[in-house]
Amino acid sequence: CGPAGSGPAAAQAREHPVLEPVLPAPAEEQNGTDSAKAPKVNCEERNTTGIDRFTLQILNVSQDLMEFLNPNSSDCTLVLFYTPWCRFSASLAPHFNSLPRAFPTLRFLALDASQHSSLSTRFGTVAVPNILLFQGAKPMARFNHTDRTLETLKDFIFNQTGIEAKSDVAVTEEDWEGPLPSVLTKGIDWLLLFSVLFLAGFVMYATIRTESIRWLIPGQEHEHQE
């Protein structure tokens, strides 16, 4: 699924769902054994004292991701770029919802890429869902697997940070309900609609303009016939 609508970006994402590695980590991610030996990101684990419920936070359209990332800290945050109409985002939702319970010392955020287009461009989000691991305010690694399940996400976090997940965490019925929606939201793709209308208007204008010029030039019609 493309972050701003359907069309060529979405078609390419369906044919090639693996996101291109633009950060240093994914190129070395294939060898799980070597990655597990040497964590690539040294995360400062947050203090969980007094926290009763571990869940992810979804940013609304008026909230900026940079407000939730501390550039002077070495704590780690896993950020999901998604869209509510993308079926890949919907299938990932319950697995991502369960991650905060598996890694209570890490932070988890999600944002609608169609509502935060500037951030999508800044961090190279060419398709959704797109998952980035941040240390402070710096992106360190991109999840680069087509199999988006709780287990593969656990492995990704462990290989990058060396932090082990809680073994008793599994996807529950509550995770299917939220906070990240697992049901597709149908809506009008205004960008695609505007693009189609603009293209149709341009073709009509070019056609009318060409016909007008042809009839204004004397002998033009005879030359075309010859």
TrEMBL record:
Keywords: Membrane, Transmembrane, Transmembrane helix
GO cellular component: cilium
Stored InterPro entries: Thioredoxin-like_sf (IPR036249), Thioredoxin_domain (IPR013766), TXNDC15 (IPR042418)
Domain Thioredoxin intervals: 19-162
UniProt cross-references to CDD domains, sorted A to Z: PDI_a_ERp44_like
Signal peptide range in chain numbering: none
Biological-process GO terms, alphabetical: cilium assembly
Pfam families reported in the protein's UniProt record: Thioredoxin
Transmembrane segments: 190-208
Lineage top rank: taxon: Eukaryota
Record's protein name: TXD15 protein
Provenance organism: Cnemophilus loriae (Loria's bird-of-paradise)
Gene name of the record: Txndc15
